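At this stage, I put together a protein sequence along with its fold in token form, as given directly below:
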Amino acid sequence: MRIFRWKRTPKPTFDAPLAPSVPVCVIGDIHGRADLLARLLERLAATVPPQACLVFVGDFVDRGDQSREVLETLWSLQQERTGQAICLMGNHERMLLDFLDEPVAHGARWMRHGGLQTLASYRVGPAAATAEGADWIAVRDWFREELGETEPWLRTLPLTWQSGNLAVVHAAVDPALALEDQSESVLLWGHPEFGKTLRTDGIWVAHGHTIIDQPRAEHGRISVDTGAYATGTLTAAFINEGMVTFL
């Protein structure tokens, strides 16, 4: 009598060594907390090498009360550290720009997701959720005037950044697709398989967007959004070859 033994298919693993080309600090979602950003930048200046790139994962605005200060700080930082300070677009920057482009269609939605606090930081009068189209347009025009040169800068924010086998995005990637084939929607809003399916190309992905209790680096993913606007904790991941340190 023959006895057949079924071999279990081994679970896939992600064992690619982490190897960015330069030291990198990935900073999580700030959401209008300029106070936390200032403190974190001071700590990074004292603890990480000056040649490290600073990559901000997006969601600089909304929910917290200091969106204007955050944007002005990041804009200035990019001027001071050309090529070493990279600001990515998040879904909240996308909602802000959608409001500027189509205020009647997108005004109420942006307000529900924290746009009210951003307007207040620019001293723009709040728009009620029931405002008519003409009111939304008036608020948009007022806000656009206050934004000034910040608007064209926001429109140029990239969706991804990569160094070696480290990619940084705002929300997620589709694990079945190459980085260059990712849609804007997935990069800004997420993908259902991102946290479940491992990549097979050896690319590590650092991201924000999804709030977690503790930052972590596992299975090819580095998660840094610790809910700064609600928890008072803004996190950075210092990433060098073969290592991740959270601050």
Observations:
- Strands lie at 24-27, 53-56, 85-87, 160-163, 166-169, 204-207, 216-218, 221-223, 236-240, 243-246.
